[in-house]
Specification:
The chain is of the alpha/beta class and 423 residues long. It contains 17 helices and 15 strands.
Length: 423
């Protein structure tokens, strides 16, 4: 059944089906906008203070909201919550809650296990609710944008930076989500142009292109210290979660995993360390597709547990892992631009034919290899000859880096405050 769904999804997002998608989008957008327009001007703001909620399902995507949350928290006459939820529909554990409450206040565990019900978001009387994942089906009914937009104003900061054209933008600004957003803070020019084209001359929603808050976190890390006492040359590998299809880029995981483990098991490579950071949904997706079994996953984890110089990444913040790496191997991922801005040498194993202007510029700063034996050989060459494209990469970083004197998170917080006061 999963295979059939992937085939249908692939056909739907193919270039051939683009005219059909556009008609579908237009109908869905008009329907969503009609419902949104009927409610937006009926929503009353709080009288005493501005109330803001950040919805968090995955700790890995908190960097999209982190500096915005911090900036609003510093403001007077505001009340801010982080509403965390389990990785729905799995409600057994809530890792996002455990993550968020370590360093933040007003953190809510969205699912009440004792009474077996969701905490009512509306009871917080929020003026604004921030989302970073635009997939309505990942939320219980009462937390889906079509419902939440009836009583508050939804703000959207994408969880990933898009440097591609085509269906990736269609997914990130999909019709079950985007029509219900009051404020959309686009990650870059391609997203902004796409959203403005969708919204045309509407006045009921606001679309901004002021910079990407994740880059605030990148800039902070640039000035912080790397891991101390690191003895081994560290390589970070970030395999993609999806198999090759018309709707998704493929993963290098199955082709690379055994050759990489064999390479790092060699006695001569004992001073190298491999950190594997799969997408949070990778193994779950592989199990669902039937390309791995639970026994396969358990055997792999056992083999890696026995190795002294290979591990799965357990760091909650992928940027820390990126900063501490000496070399990064990556499939297609929105993290690529953040790793690049950290001035890390990257071996890119994915496709680049749909890259936009930013993506093409980034691509010039990558090493390009897609065979495991070539990558292993390059690791040895890199150790002997150094980073041969470092100068080129640093030039590209200079061209791509934002030069805001103020953090993007602070700018967004001020936009929110101004909007609240003008209502």
């Amino acid at each position: 059944m999963s295979t059939l769904k992937n085939i249908i999804k692939g056909l739907y997002y193919s270039e051939m089906a683009k005219p059909i998608r556009q008609v579908h989008y237009m109908i869905s957008y008009q329907k969503g906008t009609k419902n949104y327009a009927e409610n937006i001007n009926k929503i009353k703001k709080s009288k005493d203070k501005m109330r803001v909620v950040f919805v968090l399902e995955y700790s890995e995507i908190w960097n999209s909201s982190k500096t915005v949350y911090e900036a609003i928290n510093r403001m007077q006459n505001t009340e801010v919550w982080i509403y965390t939820l389990p990785k729905y529909p799995n409600i057994k554990d809530n890792p996002a809650f455990e993550f968020a409450r370590k360093k933040n206040r007003n953190v809510i565990d969205g699912y009440d296990k004792i009474n077996k019900k969701w905490i009512d978001l509306q009871q917080l009387h929020p003026d604004y609710v921030f989302y970073t994942r635009p997939y309505a089906k990942e939320y219980p009914e009462q937390l889906r944008p079509a419902v939440v937009s009836r009583y508050t104003r939804i703000c959207y900061i994408p969880y990933g930076y898009e440097f591609v054209k085509g269906y990736h933008l269609e997914i990130e600004y999909n019709m079950n989500f985007f029509p219900y957003c009051y404020m959309t803070f686009c990650d870059g020019d391609s997203s902004y142009e796409y959203c403005k084209k969708l919204a045309r001359n509407e006045t009921l929603r606001k679309i901004y292109n002021i910079g990407y808050p994740r880059f605030d976190v990148v800039n902070r890390l640039k000035t912080s210290e790397n891991a101390q006492g690191k003895e081994k040359f560290t390589i970070l590998w970030t395999p993609r979660w999806s198999v090759e299809s018309l709707a998704n880029d493929g993963t290098s995981f199955f082709e690379f995993i055994n050759p990489f483990l064999n390479f790092f098991e060699m006695p001569r490579n004992k001073n190298l360390f491999l950190v594997i950071r799969p997408h949070p949904l990778m193994f779950e997706n592989f199990l669902k597709l039937g390309v791995m079994s639970k026994i396969d996953v358990a055997n792999l984890r056992h083999r890696i547990d026995l190795m002294k110089n290979v591990s799965f990444d357990d760091c909650e913040n992928y940027l820390i892992s990126g900063r501490n790496a000496d070399l990064i191997i990556s499939d297609f991922s929105s993290m690529l631009i953040e790793f690049l801005l950290l001035d890390k040498p990257i071996i890119y194993c994915g496709k680049s034919d749909n890259f936009d202007i930013v993506g093409k510029k980034m691509d010039e700063g990558f090493y390009h290899l897609n065979k495991s034996h070539d990558i292993c050989k390059m690791i040895v060459d890199y150790l002997n000859n150094g980073d041969t494209i470092k100068q080129k990469r640093e030039q590209i970083i200079g061209e791509l880096s934002t030069r805001n004197e103020e953090e993007i998170g602070n700018i967004i917080a001020n936009i929110l405050r101004m909007d609240f006061e003008e209502r």
